[in-house]
Specification:
heterotrimer; A mainly alpha (269); B alpha+beta (257); C alpha+beta (648); A: 269 residues; mainly alpha; 3 helical TM bundles of succinate and fumarate reductases; 8 helices; 4% strand; B: 257 residues; alpha+beta; Ubiquitin-like (UB roll); Fumarate Reductase Iron-sulfur Protein, Chain B, domain 2; 5-stranded mixed beta sheet; two-stranded antiparallel ribbon; 14% strand
């Protein structure tokens, strides 16, 4: 018998025995196996992105209370934002003990952050393996600054998040006397330092840039797509980015401008 | 009759897959503006042969924009500056006298350079092989009109099926992703009634084979811009949806696994 | 003149047409031919060269049946085959339009369209399986055009008075090829097809008169490889590129069938080439190919030239009275839808009279103004949008505003390897399918029939008939590739390559191809005459001499070298060109695509000579410097009455 090659082989091209990336070692059980592929990772990135976007929106919405100043509450005069902060801790009490639900939400956010970052990291690594750079200058036709800088804006926003926590949640940043529970006081004291205010402003611009592409992109990654609504997607992403940008950047500016201030004399002792 | 152009070409020359490549400059003189881009390269090549220099290898075949063989980066754009046009259908009247044209092969780890401007795009065949078909052995088909397909569905399927497999989507993608290629084939078959039985199997296998060679989608949209058939990025969303669905669906049939 | 003595109904040419009434021939044949038991099919190995419609569908179906298939393509992917360029559609006798179509009518139209130079039984079989093709391709997911009710849409197509053409926008060939390609890839996945990409077949291996394998060159690495099998199928397309300027892809060539011809396969009707009427005229010497636009454009476009020789006004300003709608005037009932050869020759006539349009006065107008006025721009855009776009890209003119300019170009060759009813050539074990064989189109092919024939051969004919050849071979292994037959053939291939690389002349292969093309177009083009053909028979060999001493192939054999690929193909075109001239000279009648000026009716139509030429001319290779010898297969017409074609 002649020596014909084994059936089903493809010769003449090398790709048959040359995958760039070796296939996964084994299938994890559902639904973890979804996360084993890039499409699945993007899906997770989108889902966690939706969660984080919801958080950012809600966070900004809550912070608008900084503008409301002092109000009457249970017979006491308190800054509205401080009441709101306490309200968060008391969410769904008395069903849950105080702060339990808040911690649950925080836990969810931490997981979402972790997955968002992990999927971004692993996808970047994957792409680095398969990508080859052009030796001449290439043109970008559809990709915009936002889409091309997601990794950079993501990292900066992540670092900013740590700074923000250290500054207002943990009180680790020197420069003012941080006091637990005194949100209005802490915000005003922190941001009245122009350097800190600029950090907040720059970081929030980048956050908006990140959201501009993320919010547009998540529908695509999740497969929520209908040519009839697609034109709305770009507008929705723009609207979300602008709302968050305007809202968040207004706080440090308003503090610097004295629109948001803190006067210990106005609150009940 | 036709205007003549004098151009400077900066072309990537590479002897074979293992040799290093470099840009080399060639004059392209007296090029008629009615010539196609590839005919311009033909003219340059004939000049090279007359001077005893090895001609530039470039991918081409049908020169009608349908076979998908041609495709190079022209001044930083896949298939050149004209939207919805394969390299062979780009004509020199789109250039100006005195222009410098930089021509580079597609770049992706999955598309190694074979020589000069020619790359190996066989991974695209591996994706089709993994499931880009409908299992309908010859002789088994029912009458064609027994399968009713709404015109809208047939049209949408055809929009996706128009893909010529040139690889421009991969070339234009900063992640060297082949999602547009894969999703176009998936939607072509997944949207049709005939394609339903293998829909989830197909989605899973094609996506996972794709990922052995190509990157992930970052939704830049460069692929659609580069595509000579202007295939919509929407199909990528459909692929994402079908892929995750296929995982769930196959879960539901876990007993069969 | 060379010796072309006819040995009437040569014993070499047993067509093996089965007995019985024409409707039953195929059924009878399928019942009578030998079968290979399903369990034994896996013991056979079949080589399929070419992965276009015919090759891919044959490879897929043979593999589904259980045979081991080795499929070869010189492209980087089977999906690049030139079948992909067919635009208009595929015929099938479905009668979905209820307009009186039937298998018999499709059969009749095809025989008549082919000017009575095809084998009735083959054509009838083609019409029979045409309906299965549509079912098969639909089941495979080809997105044929649909109506709102979800049923398949049809259009009418050049030369037919019924709407029997199925289409997928202007990309029917692409969609059908992708369908066949996908079916083949499914078998690659299943392990039944070995796919050899980038492998160009350079020689057929024949041992004791039987085809036993092929020798290939890998176009990327230059490696020469030998492949052995029980049978070899050549589905390598047509040879229009002998004309240099044609609508074929740049790489299309005759090498595979020509090497088989040199090894003993008779070459049938080489002079039957088809000129497509609707191509974009050449604009200059540099032109590398011509672009075809679907003939379906003739459904809505009106063809005309100015009546005035010195017309300088733009088309839109020429009043109706000064326009010469020559097809509508000459052929009132068919008008712009006359068959391709008639449309082409009339275009040549008006251009030769100096009525041509465009800067080189080498085209005629195809005008959509009336259609746009009648149906609206949107409707026209829906039908022909991609063609209009393509036209605009190539010419820089907007066909919605100014009429297109068109001119005929070669795009299909009816001639090819002679095959019997089983599609086997005169070399046992060597089969030929699709455009590569001569079988079904006679002297002229009807529009939308090429896709039909390629798929019919590959899906529904060859997979059955090959079993008849293989069945007696059970228990025989393929000839080993270290057999002297293989080793000698491999050496021949290597020697030929070294010879090309060592000529070291001054001209590029492209130059010789272009010069050859000019001769072929000039003398063996749309109109042929004795003097011109005799001239071709001296000028082509003279140019061939020059080619063999002055061609320059740079680079080496060890890497991608398109000049080296090309030069071998051109060498074969030289020999083929000569045979085309010899065949055209021998056939003193006019028929279909073969128009001898000496043989025409008073109205200038092709005048057949049924008395003397109602046969297939099949040429036998007699060595490089000896003219081929003609054998004839007499054509017997039991069903169709031979009439002078008239499309008035």
């Amino acid at each position: 018998m002649a020596a014909p090659t084994a059936a089903g082989k493809v010769t003449g091209s090398k790709s048959a025995d040359r995958p760039i990336r070796v296939a996964k070692k084994r299938d994890l059980p559902f639904p973890l196996n979804i996360y084993q592929t890039a499409v699945g990772k993007k899906w997770v990135m989108a889902v966690t992105g939706v969660i984080l976007l919801g958080f950012v929106l809600f966070h900004m919405f809550g912070n608008i209370k900084l503008y409301l100043g002092v109000i009457e509450h249970d017979g006491e005069r308190l800054y509205d934002i401080d009441i709101y902060a306490e309200g968060l801790r008391e969410l769904l009490t008395p069903i849950f003990p105080r702060t339990w639900l808040l911690w649950l939400l925080r836990g969810g956010l931490i997981v979402a952050f972790g997955l968002h970052i992990h999927s971004a990291y692993t996808l970047t690594r994957m792409n680095a393996v398969v990508n080859r750079q052009y030796q001449s200058k290439r043109d970008w036709l559809a990709a915009n600054f936002a889409s091309r800088s997601m990794r950079v804006t993501g990292i900066i926003v992540g670092l900013y998040l740590l700074f923000h926590l250290a500054d207002l949640t943990w009180g680790w940043i020197p420069g003012y006397d941080w006091e637990r529970g005194q949100v209005q006081a802490n915000v005003v004291n922190s941001m009245s330092n122009p350097v800190v205010a600029i950090i907040y402003i720059v970081a929030n611009v980048l956050l908006a840039v990140h959201i501009f592409h993320g919010a547009y992109s998540m529908f695509q990654s999740l497969g929520i797509n209908n040519p009839r609504y697609n034109s709305v997607r770009r507008n929705l992403a723009t609207a979300l980015a602008v709302i968050i940008l305007v809202g968040n950047v207004s706080f440090p500016i308003a503090v610097l401008a004295g629109i948001i201030d803190y006067d210990p004399n106005l609150v009940s002792a | 009759m036709s205007t003549r152009l004098n151009l400077t070409l900066s072309i990537w020359r590479q002897a074979d897959a293992d040799s290093p490549g470099r840009f080399e400059t060639y004059p392209a003189k007296d090029i008629p503006d009615d010539a196609s881009f590839l005919e311009m390269l033909d003219i340059v090549n004939e000049g090279l042969i007359e001077n005893g220099q090895e001609p530039i290898e470039f991918p081409h075949d049908c020169r009608e924009g349908i076979c998908g063989t041609c495709g190079v980066m022209i001044n930083g754009r896949a298939h050149g500056q004209e939207k919805g046009t394969a390299t062979c259908q780009l004509h020199m009247r789109k250039f100006n006298d005195g222009d410098t044209i930089v021509i580079e092969p597609w770049r992706a780890a999955a598309f190694p350079v074979i020589k000069d401007l020619v790359v190996d795009r066989s991974p695209l065949d591996r994706i089709i092989e993994a499931g880009g078909y409908i299992g309908a052995p010859t002789g088994t088909a029912p009458d064609a009109n027994e399968i009713l397909i709404p015109k809208e569905v047939a049209d949408s399927s055809m929009d996706a099926a128009a893909c010529i497999g040139c690889g421009a989507c991969v070339a234009a993608c900063p992640n060297s992703a082949a999602q547009l290629f894969t999703s176009a084939k998936l939607w072509h078959l997944n949207s049709l009634p005939q394609g339903q039985t293998e829909r989830f199997r197909r989605s899973e296998n094609m996506v996972e084979t794709m990922e052995e060679f190509f990157g992930s989608c970052t939704n830049h949209g460069e692929c659609t811009e580069a595509c000579p058939k202007e295939i919509s990025q929407d199909f990528i969303a459909y692929m994402n949806r079908d892929y995750v669905k296929s995982k769930v669906f196959n879960r539901r049939l876990a007993g069969q696994h | 003149m060379t010796d072309t003595s006819i040995s009437q109904s040569s014993p070499l040419l047993d067509s093996k047409v089965p007995e019985g009434p024409i409707e039953d021939k195929w059924d009878n044949h399928r019942f009578k031919i030998k079968l290979v038991n399903p369990a034994n099919k896996r013991k056979f190995r079949i080589i399929v060269v070419g992965t276009g419609l015919a090759g891919a569908s044959a490879a897929a179906t043979l593999a589904e049946l259980g045979y081991n298939v080795d499929a070869f393509t010189y492209h980087d992917s089977p999906r690049r085959a030139h079948s992909i360029s067919a635009q208009g559609g595929i015929n099938a006798a479905k009668n979905y339009r209820n307009d009186g179509d039937s298998i018999y009518r499709l059969f009749y139209d095809t025989v008549k369209g082919g000017d009575y130079r095809s084998r009735e039984a083959n054509v009838y079989r083609l019409a029979q399986v045409s309906v299965d093709i549509i079912d098969q391709m639909t089941a495979q997911g080809v997105p044929f055009a649909r109506e709102y009710g979800g049923l398949l849409d049809n259009r009418s197509f050049g030369g037919a008075q019924v709407s029997r053409t199925f289409y997928a926008r202007g990309q029917t060939g692409q969609q059908l090829l992708l369908g066949a390609y996908q079916q083949m890839m499914r078998q690659v996945d299943a392990g039944k097809v070995n796919l050899h990409t980038d492998e160009e077949m350079l020689e057929l291996v024949v041992k004791d008169g039987v085809a036993v394998g092929i020798v290939c060159r890998n176009v990327v690495t230059g490696e020469i490889s030998k492949h052995s099998a029980h049978a070899v199928v050549l589905a390598t397309g047509g040879y229009s590129n002998a004309f240099y300027l044609s609508t074929n892809a740049m790489a299309c060539n005759t090498t595979a069938i020509w090497r088989a011809h040199r090894k003993g396969a008779l070459f049938a009707n080489p002079c039957f080439t088809q000129i497509h009427p609707t191509c974009i005229p050449a604009s200059d010497e540099f032109q590398s190919k011509l672009t075809l636009m679907s003939e379906s454009l003739r459904n809505d476009g009106r063809i005309w030239v100015p009546r005035n020789h010195d017309e300088t006004r733009p088309a839109g300003q020429i009043p109706e009275a000064e326009r010469f709608y020559y097809l509508e005037e000459k052929y009132p009932s068919f008008g712009n839808l006359v068959p391709r050869d008639v449309a082409s020759r009339n275009a040549k006539t008006v251009v030769d009279q100096g009525l041509g349009v465009g800067p080189l006065k080498n085209g005629v107008y195809l005008d959509f103004a009336d259609a746009i006025g009648r149906d609206g721009k949107d409707k026209i855009e829906e039908r022909y949008g991609n063609l209009f776009q393509m036209y605009e890209r190539i010419t820089g003119e907007d066909p919605y505003r100014v009429p297109m300019r068109i001119y005929p170009a070669t795009h299909y060759t009816m001639g090819g390897l002679w095959v019997d009813y089983n599609l086997m050539t005169t070399i046992p074990g060597c089969f030929s399918a699709g455009e590569a064989n001569f079988s079904d189109h006679g002297a002229n092919r009807l529009g939308a029939s090429a896709l039909m024939q390629g798929l019919a051969d590959g899906y529904f004919v060859l997979p059955y008939t090959i079993g008849n050849y293989l069945a007696p071979l059970l228990g025989h292994d393929p000839v080993p590739t270290d057999d002297p037959a293989f080793v000698e053939t491999e050496q021949d291939v290597k020697d030929r390559i070294s010879r090309f690389l060592s000529i070291g002349g001054t001209r590029s292969p492209e130059y010789f191809h272009r010069e050859l093309g000019k001769l072929v177009w000039e003398y063996i083009g749309m109109e042929r005459n004795k003097a011109g053909l005799e001239k071709a028979l001296t000028e082509i060999p003279a140019l061939r001499e020059e080619f063999w001493s002055d061609v320059r192939v740079l680079g080496n054999n060890e890497s991608l070298n398109s000049s080296l690929e090309k030069v071998g193909r051109i060498a074969d075109f030289f020999e083929l060109g000569e045979l085309m001239a010899r065949d055209a000279l021998d056939r003193t009648e006019s028929c279909g695509g073969h128009f001898r000026i000496e043989s025409q009716t008073p109205e200038g139509e092709a005048l057949r000579d049924d008395e003397n030429y109602s046969h297939v001319s099949a040429w036998e290779w007699k060595g490089p410097d000896t003219p081929q010898v003609k054998h004839a297969e007499e054509l017997v017409f039991e069903e169709v009455e031979l009439t002078q074609r008239s499309y008035k």
